[in-house]
Write a structure and sequence with these properties.
Number of helices: 6
Helix content: 55-70%
Largest sheet: 2 strands, antiparallel
Strand content: under 5%
Structural class: mainly alpha
Number of strands: 2
């Protein structure tokens, strides 16, 4: 239990029991404060529709390029097919996942943590989907593709670094 506030402490979420004065505020810190019943950081990262659209397009184009590079001279056709397919699949998988992860990371000011979490979440999600849908009996067969998808998610988040605001 948090002792009552003193006369010099503001009631707006700053002060004792708050991460508002932290320079870096991590996701674990925000969750720990919320679990203890204390006020999480009032500083947060905000992103608009423009950042979401740019990040989504960077991720889809990156994946299309990676998958097309293996095809040599037929790469342009494969790029267009992968881009078209990626836009459709990405609208129902990657876009919602990216928005939810971005929303959950709002209390974390350090954008490198955002990039790392985007990599991890997208790689794990892709690995789980590949493991569940693959006809292969070897669990690790989907790992290279999952790592590529995780890398595209991290690159997409890094691409909007300047489009987000940290308050």
């Amino acid at each position: 239990m948090i002792p009552p506030r003193g006369p010099g402490e503001p009631v707006d979420g700053t002060g004792r029991g708050s991460a508002a004065d932290d320079d870096e505020g991590t996701l674990a810190d925000a969750f720990a404060l919320a679990d203890d019943g204390r006020t999480p950081s009032r500083h947060h990262v905000t992103f608009g529709v423009g950042a979401v659209v740019v990040g989504f397009l960077v991720g889809v184009v990156t994946l299309a390029l990676v998958f097309a590079l293996r095809w040599g001279s037929g790469g342009l056709g494969i790029f267009v097919i992968a881009l078209w397919y990626g836009l459709g699949i990405g609208l129902v998988t990657g876009l919602p996942l990216g928005v939810v992860v971005g929303y959950l990371l709002r209390p974390v000011r350090n954008q490198w943590i955002h990039v790392g979490v985007f990599f991890a979440v997208f790689a794990v999600a892709a690995f789980v989907v590949a493991a569940l849908l693959s006809p292969s009996t070897a669990l690790g067969d989907g790992l290279p593709t999952a790592l590529v998808i995780g890398g595209a998610g991290a690159l997409a988040r890094a691409s909007v670094w300047r489009l987000v605001r940290t308050r």
